[in-house]
Design a protein that fits this description.
Elements: H1 32-40, H2 44-56, H3 73-76, H4 81-90, H5 106-128, E1 138-139, E2 144-151, E3 160-165, E4 171-175, E5 180-184, E6 187-193, E7 206-211, H6 215-218, E8 221-228, E9 235-247, E10 250-261, E11 278-280, E12 285-290, E13 308-313, E14 334-337, E15 341-347, E16 353-358, E17 364-368, E18 407-409, E19 415-420, E20 433-437, E21 442-449, E22 452-461, E23 465-471, E24 478-483, E25 487-493
Parallel strand pairs: 6-10
Antiparallel strand pairs: 1-2, 2-25, 3-4, 4-5, 5-6, 7-8, 8-9, 9-10, 11-12, 12-13, 13-14, 15-16, 16-17, 17-18, 19-20, 20-21, 21-22, 23-24, 24-25
Helix pairs in contact: 2-5, 4-5
Bound molecules: heme C (HEC).
């Protein structure tokens, strides 16, 4: 039974407080200043354990003070983010829970919601596991499917980051350290020589490969990679295009042109957050996404490429109708900003530009990208800090205007790779997004309608870190690029 998250679809706006056992009347903390002082130097889990666990249980299982378990699918749903925040801030007085808005900051209160989400995920995952096959067949809503290996471990894959296809059905698979292999069906048959050297450092290296939709006519292939800066130990993401010159089964990378390169002053040290994915809008533009290189404040700075989605003409020139072309000092290529580390980008069938990006500890986002939109990082976030301290709240404060995500993953899946189902093998899923997650080791099918998130279902879990999810342009099968083990698997329909 495929329960995991599929169950969410049956959950309608839930969360009605049903009266149950006689509530215990609990007096507010004797000394509120004691909690204020404790919370100041404490981790979020420390605050929970001291203040909340006596009623809600150390694993949110409930039982004390008249509480019920929070570890249910209905309570896990993102619709409860604000109600949970409000319950903690304003209290549930008729049930004996005090208002913590007097003792805890909004950031601490949101941190407690994140902590509860982590506990819920733990409990629900333990209870439900992931999608399970019966006689090799998985049952999902609308389709039965199989998962089979396409390119096994040990076939020349080395932290594969990206897959795309040539019109004849051969695939190109880019490895992060800077190599690329050519595969026909389920066999590696060749490699691409002569690629630019990449800065293989931390999360950086050869990132994305995007075959131009009119490849037959123009032969262009776009690559993005972490580029070594002029100063030692610096790097930033760079976009190029080039062509393949075939020599038997191998190809030579030729005619390379730089499509986008940030000035050297923006190159920085460290191996964090390069982005990057490239998509074509079919109207002569490409969209590419840049990570903020671990410098969150730069995501809000329009004079920097960090944490931005760029829109360029296919030849790298800047379209004259970009939103910030007339703004003094702005990077003219910017389309949207306030991003952290986007690693999924795709046009939906209705032309909506969808993006997935990674939050820190909680708060991966599915965003609908709009012209000049500010997505809020690092001023708002569904996350806490890695060290379990509060970071922000998810909602704009007075005077702030941010585009909120259509959906957030809490805890994170470390979203990476995004595509859209175009029909083919999975007609019932036409128009659905498929998204991967590295740490979550997951593939989710996400239903969207009229630019809105509807629900999601997990299709694959715990086979490895999911680096890329791409739908085969000819067959419509869903290809999944895994790291650790480094291999490619595919989801195909089971009759
Ligand atoms: C004295 C007992 C008590 C303490 C302490 C307490 N709560 Fe509650 N809380 C309750 C009760 C009772 C409810 C009503 C819902 C239920 O039945 O669980 C509730 C409701 C909630 C809800 C809403 C749940 C829902 O189902 O919508 C959240 C979230 C919550 N508490 C979080 C916290 C957090 C975080 C803390 C610590 C800062 C805390 N509570 C401390 C008793 C308590």
């Amino acid at each position: 039974m495929l329960k995991w998250l599929g169950a969410l679809t049956s959950v309608v706006v839930g969360c009605v407080a049903v009266p149950h056992e006689q509530p215990h009347v609990v007096k507010p903390a004797k000394d509120k200043s004691e909690l204020v002082a404790f919370a100041q130097g404490s981790s979020i889990s420390g605050i929970y354990d001291r203040t909340c666990a006596k009623c809600h249980g150390d694993r949110a299982q409930g039982g004390g003070g008249g509480t019920r378990s929070l570890n249910t699918w209905a309570k896990f749903d993102q619709k409860n983010d604000k109600p949970f925040f409000d319950a903690i801030k304003k209290g549930v007085s008729d049930m004996g829970m005090e208002a913590f808005g007097e003792t805890l900051s909004d950031e601490q209160i949101w941190g407690l919601v994140v902590h509860i989400r982590e506990l819920q995920y733990d409990a629900l995952r333990r209870e439900s596991g992931g999608p399970k096959a019966k006689d090799g067949v998985y049952q999902a809503q609308g389709h039965r499917y199989k998962i089979t290996t396409v390119i096994p471990k040990g076939s020349g894959l080395d932290i594969p980051w990206s897959i795309d296809w040539l019109p004849d059905g051969r695939s190109l698979i880019a490895n992060r350290p800077g190599t690329m292999v050519v595969a026909r069906e389920n066999q590696v048959v060749g490699k691409v020589n002569g690629l630019s050297a990449v800065w293989s450092n931390g999360q950086g290296g050869l990132l994305d490969i995007a075959v131009h939709p009119k490849y037959r006519e123009n032969g262009w292939i776009y690559l993005s990679f972490a580029d070594q800066g002029a100063k030692p130990n610096t790097g930033f993401t760079k976009i190029v295009r080039g062509k393949l010159k075939w020599e038997g089964q191998d190809a030579q990378w030729t005619q390379q042109e730089t499509i986008y390169q940030a000035p050297q002053s923006m190159y920085s040290s460290g191996g964090a957050h390069f982005g990057n994915r490239t998509v074509f809008d079919g109207k002569g533009h490409i969209f590419v996404c840049y990570g903020e290189r671990g410098q969150g404040n730069l995501s809000q700075d329009l004079s920097r490429t960090n944490g931005k989605i760029l829109r360029l003409n296919e030849d790298g020139s800047v379209p004259s109708d970009n939103p910030f072309v007339n703004q003094e000092g702005a990077v003219k290529a910017i389309w949207s900003y306030g991003h952290r580390n986007p690693q999924g980008l795709v046009f939906g069938l209705d032309g909506t530009l969808w993006e997935t990006e990674q939050g820190p500890r909680g708060g991966d986002e599915l965003n609908k990208i709009t012209k000049a939109g500010n997505y809020g990082w690092p001023l708002v976030s569904f996350s806490i800090n890695y060290n379990d301290s509060p970071l922000a709240t998810p909602w704009p404060k007075a005077g702030q205007k941010f585009v909120q995500p259509e959906m957030r993953w809490l805890p994170v899946i470390a979203s990476c790779g995004l595509d859209v189902v175009r029909g083919g093998a999975f007609p019932q899923w036409r128009g659905d997004l498929v998204a991967g997650g590295l740490a979550g080791q997951t593939v989710r099918r996400i239903r969207v309608k009229d630019g809105k998130y509807v629900d999601q279902e997990e299709l694959l879990w715990a086979m490895g870190r999911v680096r890329d999810v791409q739908v085969h342009p000819l067959t419509g099968e869903i290809y999944v690029v895994l790291n650790g083990p480094d291999m490619v698997v595919k989801l195909s329909r089971a009759e």
